[in-house]
Amino acid sequence: MQKSLLRSVLKAKRAEISHILEDYKPLLAQNTIPELLALLSITDKVAGYYPINSEFDCLFILKSLIKHGIEVSLPVVGEGKVMKFKAWNGDEALLGPGKFGVPIPICEGNFVDPDMILVPMLGFNNRGYRIGYGGAFYDNTLPHHPRAKTIGLAFKNQLCEEFQEEPHDVKLNSIITEEGVFPLL
């Protein structure tokens, strides 16, 4: 299946479940936060993202990590489709419009070299590769952080075995769904 058609199908699948995310938050908190904290045993800086277009909402996860003393950051699009991560304290009032209208931290703050990067996606395969919107922002950014653990956040219904990764696609270390860590091949 062509990637553009596949993206349309995956957007519809994600939209089917994202509207009930509020109902899933207790389950998500139960299944994702402990998994992330276990993966954070040697890390203290996590880059997340501000969810758009029915993406897996990780803001409540980021705010929980802040309560556990973890430094959190959000992406800011830079030159050449490479993102940098700016520190954020969890206060949504300190966010302003960034590129493409995605909120970014507008407060004074440093850019952070994260130990873990939470990655949104339209779909994923069981080998740990994701399909995004096609802008290649994460594929261009992740190689700049080779020591960071990369964790994809998705709903289980976003599994897409038809998706074949390409040479420029970056493999994620783990994928966490509403059911917990998804087993990768």
TrEMBL record:
Entry's Gene Ontology BP terms: folic acid-containing compound biosynthetic process; tetrahydrofolate interconversion
The EC number(s) this enzyme carries: 6.3.3.2
UniProt keyword Transferase, yes or no: no
Pfam families: 5-FTHF_cyc-lig
Binding positions for substrate per the UniProt entry: E55
Catalytic reactions on record: (6S)-5-formyl-5,6,7,8-tetrahydrofolate + ATP = (6R)-5,10-methenyltetrahydrofolate + ADP + phosphate
Cofactor section: Mg(2+)
Primary enzyme class: ligase
InterPro entries (alphabetical): FTHF_cligase, FTHF_cligase-like_sf, NagB/RpiA_transferase-like
Keywords: ATP-binding, Magnesium, Metal-binding, Nucleotide-binding
Sample GO molecular function, one term: ATP binding
Binding residue positions for ATP: K3, S4, L5, L6, R7, R130, I131, G132, Y133, G134, G135, A136, F137, Y138
Family per record: Belongs to the 5-formyltetrahydrofolate cyclo-ligase family.
Family annotation (NCBIfam families): MTHFS_bact
Protein name as it appears in the record: 5-formyltetrahydrofolate cyclo-ligase
Organism, scientific name: Stentor coeruleus
